[in-house]
């Protein structure tokens, strides 16, 4: 299917709304359940740890919006003002928008066809008043479908730094990530890199490491070498990650000494460096 084409006036409207955004990062995954929304939430918390940075987290997983729960914002409502929809704020410098805020109950099913999903994504980009932001993080549903085509098409009117692709080590997950990489190449979406999630588990008692998801084909590392994309890092399993998400807390601040936190911080730093380098290259070319 072709992506929806924005008329020039609409593209100008999107540009006007998003011109204040300096960096835009899409978080993608080939399949569900690999920890993509967990990564998006943790990335947003990690970037917002710098109080001088304004961070926006946009959840375009229309049918499975888990960001409100993960950010501790369940039950919050979106408010409208003269300048558009106001995001829901976790911190002064961390705003969130999700279809979850528009549902009367978190158990409501969103049973929509593609055009209605596309319409809401466009509305999120055009009508949400983020203000001046340094980072826009977009949490997407799994796969390469309507929502992905829409967000890439609409954001092409402005600027996308690139995509972070989340996988787990086993071949069945990597198989779908290869499709995701292929999708990025086809729509000319730069790939910042791949994150291997659930990468081993160290028993807190005996300290022995187990591979819960064995990397039978060499895991993300080998796939990245073969496909010439960056491996941003490996995040080990830590039960505290799931607990923090369920409680709507930041795992990074709840478990500062965890090896997973160290891994996350290194990955977040690499994403920041990539965005800054890309920004300075583009400024030089203007």
Secondary structure: elements and pairs:
Layout: H1 8-18, E1 21-29, H2 36-48, E2 55-59, H3 67-70, E3 79-81, E4 84-86, E5 88-91, E6 94-98, H4 114-127, E7 133-139, H5 146-155, E8 162-167, H6 171-186, E9 191-196, E10 201-202, E11 209-210, H7 219-227, E12 231-234, H8 239-247, H9 251-254, H10 259-285
Parallel strand pairs: 1-7, 1-8, 2-6, 2-7, 8-9, 9-12
Antiparallel strand pairs: 3-4, 5-6, 10-11
Helix pairs in contact: 1-4, 2-10, 4-5
CATH architecture descriptor: 3-Layer(aba) Sandwich
Poorly predicted runs are: none
Q: Nearest-angstrom radius of gyration? A: 18 Å
Question: What's the β-strand tally?
Answer: 12
Overall outline: globular
Mean pLDDT: 92
The side-by-side strand order for the widest beta sheet comes to 5-6-2-7-1-8-9-12
Number of continuous helical runs: 10
- In what range is the share of β-strand residues? 15-25%
Fold-level CATH name: Rossmann fold
CATH superfamily: P-loop containing nucleotide triphosphate hydrolases
Cα(first) to Cα(last) distance is 34 Å
Secondary structural class: alpha/beta
Biggest pleated-sheet summary: 8 strands, mixed
Order of helices and strands: HEHEHEEEEHEHEHEEEHEHHH
Q: Which bin fits the share of residues in helices?
A: 40-55%
CATH class: Alpha Beta
Overall tally of domains: 1
Features:
single chain; 286 residues; alpha/beta; Rossmann fold; 8-stranded mixed beta sheet; two-stranded antiparallel ribbon; 10 helices; globular
Architecture overview:
This protein is of the alpha/beta class and 286 residues long. It has a single domain, classed as Rossmann fold (3-Layer(aba) Sandwich), CATH 3.40.50. The protein is built from ten helices and twelve strands. The strands form three sheets. An eight-stranded mixed sheet has the order 5-6-2-7-1-8-9-12, sandwiched between helices. Helix 6 (171-186) links the parallel strand 8 and strand 9. Helix 4 (114-127) packs parallel to helix 5. The mean pLDDT is 92. It is found in: Cytoplasm; Nucleus. Keywords: 4Fe-4S, ATP-binding, Cytoplasm, Iron, Iron-sulfur, Metal-binding, Nucleotide-binding. InterPro entries: Mrp-like_CS (IPR000808), Mrp/NBP35_ATP-bd (IPR019591), NUBP1/Nbp35 (IPR028601), P-loop_NTPase (IPR027417), YlxH/NBP35 (IPR033756). GO terms for molecular function: 4 iron, 4 sulfur cluster binding; ATP binding; ATP-dependent FeS chaperone activity; metal ion binding. One of its GO terms (cellular component) is nucleus.
